[in-house]
Amino acid sequence: MVEVRRGRARSEVTRRAILAATRDELTAHGYDRLSIDRIAAAAGAGKQTVYRWYPSKVALVADCLLADRVFDGVAPVADTGDLVADLRVWLRAFAAQFDRPDTAAFIRAATAAAAESDQVAIRFYEQSTAAAETALAERLRAGEAAGQLKPGVAAATAQSLIGAMLYRLLTRQPVTAEFADQLVSALPVR
Amino acid sequence: MVEVRRGRARSEVTRRAILAATRDELTAHGYDRLSIDRIAAAAGAGKQTVYRWYPSKVALVADCLLADRVFDGVAPVADTGDLVADLRVWLRAFAAQFDRPDTAAFIRAATAAAAESDQVAIRFYEQSTAAAETALAERLRAGEAAGQLKPGVAAATAQSLIGAMLYRLLTRQPVTAEFADQLVSALPVR
């Protein structure tokens, strides 16, 4: 029993070392040029050990980003009663994340991984993106209930706000506070 | 002179064969599992020839998609005088493209390539995506001028409409006519 536990603990240490090495590799070389050889060497593990845990590059990067909780910390959208002001504050903070070079690099790696694999896309969505979408949609629905927003648009609007930021990131346009404000300004508020 | 021309023609034939093989490879195996070995074999070219033309997988896929004009044929948005109806027609057609499995696979490959490479992202944007964005923004601006849309929102709205579709594709949610209609319904029309 003790031996099994020790084996498990060792495995977990190796897995964490692999994920830490992957994070460094992503920062230094990006997703496209990521090398399993370098990651194995940096983690002090055999290449076969890496492949035993992670059969593909996509699976490795996905787990690295999710383990890092890169997309955690999605704040709820405040409800001060002023829908436009609340959305502006939240979207500006969200945009600021997208505009940081390190976060932007991680979001691009996650996007590449999600673009390539259905399984990874669904994991990312369920474990990270959906939280931002839900936070936004809930605040928008409260706005609808308060008569401050056209009824029935909350779900699609939450997706298009996040989609707009992602589009800017992918087309290499800055994701600024001004852009966040423009998005809020383009909502059907009342 | 004739020899040079023949050499050029031969090169061009090889390049087209490589791109055609890449297209087949993308359809059969997807971006992540794309194999340069298989592409070279299918094109009847040496692996070194492929690398001489295309130093990276990203460059190869980008050129394949752009050569195929996968993203061409972005129709101008009709102007019948009815902004909501015109946007609905155009966005439904755009959504139908996103929802076709073959086009969806190409857009995902393009997204993965753009996520990984600044250079590819900018090429895609300039040579393809910007056309859709411009078509939408122009129609939205005409709507603003006609007093049918809140002034000043055209540019951000064009980006968020396209971004919303991309977001659905990446999170593996269907890009339906209903979703297109919801997006139009969430615009600040007057």
Give a written overview of the molecule.
The structure is a homodimer of 190-residue chains. Chain A has 190 residues and is mainly α. The first copy, chain A, folds into two domains: 2-55, Arc Repressor Mutant, subunit A; 83-185, Tetracycline Repressor, domain 2, CATH 1.10.357. Chain A is built from nine helices and no strands. Chain A is elongated, with a radius of gyration of 20 Å. The mean pLDDT of chain A is 87. At the A-B interface, helix 6, helix 7, helix 8 and helix 9 of A face helix 6, helix 7, helix 8 and helix 9 of B.
Short recap of the structure:
2 copies of one chain form a homodimer. With 190 residues, chain A is mainly α.
Order of helices and strands of chain A: HHHHHHHHH
Most strands sheet of chain A: none
**Largest two-chain interface:** A-B, 47 and 47 residues
- Gap between N and C termini of chain A, in Å? 65 Å
Which CATH architecture of the largest domain in chain A?
Orthogonal Bundle
Q: Based on CA inertia axes, which overall geometry of chain A fits?
A: elongated
Q: Helix/strand-derived class of chain A?
A: mainly alpha
Tally of helical runs of chain A: 9
Q: Helicity of chain A, in percent?
A: over 70%
Oligomer: homodimer
